[in-house]
Amino acid sequence: MPKNKTHSGTKKRVRVTGSGKLVHAGSGKRHNLEKKATKQTRRIDGMHVVADVDVPRLKKLLGR
């Protein structure tokens, strides 16, 4: 039986935490930061937990 390959696009965008949750980087931190308030850029910084409905599909793409 051949091994399943991990989807290379998904592994660059989604990370598995120690507890097994899937997290992804938030949007809105790439460009046009001068016009956004500092309070807003702090709030949108960091990782966000993937929605529950998307977890099974992403786990399959990650080979888990």
Automatic annotation (TrEMBL):
Gene3D superfamilies named among the record's database cross-references: 4.10.410.60
Species classification: Bacteria, Bacillati, Actinomycetota, Actinomycetes, Nakamurellales
Gene Ontology CC terms, in alphabetical order: cytosolic large ribosomal subunit
Region of interest (Disordered), ranges: 1-42
Sequence similarity: Belongs to the bacterial ribosomal protein bL35 family.
Name of the featured protein: Large ribosomal subunit protein bL35
Species for this entry: Nakamurella leprariae
Gene Ontology terms, MF aspect: structural constituent of ribosome
PANTHER family according to UniProt: 54S RIBOSOMAL PROTEIN BL35M (PTHR33343), LARGE RIBOSOMAL SUBUNIT PROTEIN BL35M (PTHR33343:SF1)
Cited InterPro entries: Ribosomal_bL35, Ribosomal_bL35-like, Ribosomal_bL35_sf
Keywords tagged on the record: Ribonucleoprotein, Ribosomal protein
